[in-house]
Design brief:
Number of helices: 15
CATH architecture of the largest domain: 2-Layer Sandwich
Shape: elongated
Helix content: 25-40%
CATH class of the largest domain: Alpha Beta
Structural class: alpha+beta
CATH superfamily of the largest domain: Bira Bifunctional Protein, Domain 2
Distance between the termini: 52 Å
Number of domains: 3
CATH topology of the largest domain: BirA Bifunctional Protein, domain 2
Largest sheet: 8 strands, mixed
């Protein structure tokens, strides 16, 4: 009997992991520059954390969560997103008492039991950031700038869609206006949107079904029904984005798929993803902390899919840093192979990627392996070299060979420049 990975999940194999590590390194670099610290929460929570926070009428809670009962009778759920988990941790650990604004980011796996499709798996990975404790529109713009900078750093062409979904003052009034409109087009909506028109009408605008889009083409815009506070907030966010030089398109239909959003909502989309064009997005969620049992606390954040981001990079021809081997050490007999292993360890301790043969292959076979691994240099040692205490060092790109004393090998490689295509700290001494 053989086993396979579960449908909707994917093994990350060694030849792919370098791309993920590079992407994570770019994300961490930008997050650190914006002074966000990493947070890591458990991969499962009490089900109520998500059902109460995300909203009972959302697709995530209604259809997609992996929920199970443990041996103690508690209902637990694999996290389908991170914002609710981060807010739970914020409340539980009294982070508000530390003063100031809490700025955190995350990178990790999420779980949703939905139909697998391009860039969307049942176990997928997201990165994101949350800024908790500040109501200023500048924080909304700052969060957007983080995502924009990550995409720009990776050379991704995308469009920022921007909207306001109002606040508890203006949204109930807009809900009434929208429901009245939807009642007039009820028979033209899909069955799912007919149900949502009664329970959560704004979600009808979020539908991607052509039938629903056509039926709601002339739906009233929430931007025409904003309270003075929401209008001022939205205008201030736009002004900040203008100051930052971040272009955007206002999309009154953008409501996002989660119930906890208030005021700002945004989404980055890419034409390289086809109909499923969303790269990531987020918005303000000033009421979520209170919903999860804490004090009313303003907050804003975003999340983005890693798999989709990698799809766009691959389609765009993005050049990932090479993980090519720096030095391959060839040993031709038992004594020299033992010496090769010792030298490889010495080089690795100085941050220089090095490898040697463990299977007793011939010189020709080892040279083929070095070439296959993309080694920049090959060190060749046999009986003669062991006797003279001098190794043959071959530069693979030029074919040039030279004889270097054993005692000088380490310093020789430490003096070489860092490879321009390497993502590692090769050839840089730690001392």
């Amino acid at each position: 009997m053989t086993f396979k990975s579960i449908k909707g999940t994917k093994d990350l194999l060694p030849d792919e992991s370098g791309r993920w590590l590079h992407l994570e390194a770019v994300i961490r670099e930008v997050m650190t520059a914006y002074r966000y610290a990493e947070i890591r929460t458990p991969t499962f929570e009490e089900t109520a954390v998500f059902s109460r926070g995300i909203g009972e009428e959302t697709d995530i809670v209604g259809k997609e969560m992996y929920t199970f009962t443990d041996k103690g009778g508690s209902s637990l759920t694999l996290r389908p997103e991170m914002t609710a988990s981060v807010v739970r941790a914020y409340i539980q650990h009294s982070l508000a008492e530390q003063g100031g604004v809490t700025k955190v980011y995350y990178i990790g796996p999420m779980y949703r039991q939905e139909r697998p499709q391009a860039g969307r798996l049942r176990q997928f990975h997201q990165f994101g950031a949350e800024c908790i404790g500040a109501a200023a529109p500048a924080c909304d713009a700052d969060i957007i700038a983080i995502a924009a900078d990550i995409y720009a750093r990776l050379g991704i062409r995308c469009t920022l869609k921007l909207n306001s979904v109002g606040d508890p003052v203006c949204r109930p009034k807009y809900r009434e206006v929208l429901q009245a409109y939807l009642a007039g087009v009820h028979d033209r909506l899909t069955l799912e949107s007919q149900r949502r028109a009664e329970t959560n009408p704004m979600r009808v605008l979020d539908s991607k079904a052509p039938q629903d889009i056509d039926a709601t083409m002339d739906a009233p815009s929430i931007l025409d029904h904003l309270s003075d506070e929401s209008r001022a907030h939205f205008d201030a966010v736009r002004a900040c984005l203008d100051d930052f030089g971040i272009p955007y398109v206002i999309d009154p239909r953008l409501v996002r798929g989660l119930d906890y959003y208030t005021k700002t909502a945004f989404e980055f989309v890419s034409t390289d993803l086809g109909s499923q064009d969303a790269l990531g997005g987020g918005g303000r969620y000033d009421g979520l902390t209170e919903q999860l049992g804490g004090k009313a606390t303003p907050a804003v954040g975003f999340a983005a899919g890693m798999e989709r981001l990698l799809m766009v990079l691959e389609k765009s021809g993005y050049t990932f840093p090479s993980d090519a081997l720096s030095v391959y050490i060839v040993g031709l007999d038992e004594r020299s192979r033992r010496w090769s292993h010792v030298q490889a360890v010495r080089l690795r301790r100085e941050g220089i990627p090095a490898e040697c043969d463990f299977t007793g292959r011939s010189l020709k076979a080892q040279m083929r392996e070095a070439n296959k691994r993309g080694a920049r240099h090959v060190v060749i040692v046999g009986e003669e070299e062991m006797a003279s205490q001098r190794a043959i060092v071959k530069t693979m790109e030029t074919g040039e060979q030279q004889s270097i004393e054993f005692a000088s090998l380490l310093s020789y490689f430490l003096r070489l420049p860092v490879s321009p295509n390497s993502d590692a700290s090769a050839y840089v001494s730690t001392h």
